[in-house]
Amino acid sequence: MAQQLLSQWRFYPVPLHPGTALAVPTGRLVGITRMWHTLRMGFLSFETAIAVTGKSRRTLWRRLQDEVLQRSDARGRTLIDSDWVRRNSTLPLDGQEWDLVVAADSGDAAAQCEVGTLCLQAGLHDSAVFWFREAAEHGLPDALHWLAHCHVTGKGVPQSDDLALSFLAKAAAAGHTIASEQMSGIKSRLLR
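-> structure tokens emitted (192 positions)
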């Protein structure tokens, strides 16, 4: 029985991932072009999809059940069709900005910080904080400075002067020039 079922499937190698294959029922090539395009164009992480679309985790899971091709990567992250994410993005993304999102998803700290600023400008404060935190985990001084800004203003996080000062001090210690000047100004006012 199993051999009969296997004989009805044809396996195609997937060039982006050596050793993997795409199984398609023989004679049923409807949709194969879409699937191949998805595999070629790539996937983004579930967390990136949440940040870019502005949808909650629960809402996104519900919408993805039947609509989007999903899979997992070597790090165990759920991956989602990047075309779907782009179509459902709440950010106005042109070619260069989309490239930033893809780079940010792959772990590029500078791109994560840039996407955070795009989100902040678009009024997507929660998404901005997500990206700034991702970049700050890599120690990026700009991201630390932006997190200080978010905590001072209460954008995307509860307003907290203590956390803002902490992030500002970390940014200054990491060599951020503006943060260093701001810390000097704060110290001079405290010592008066």
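Confidence is low (pLDDT under 50) at residues 1-41.
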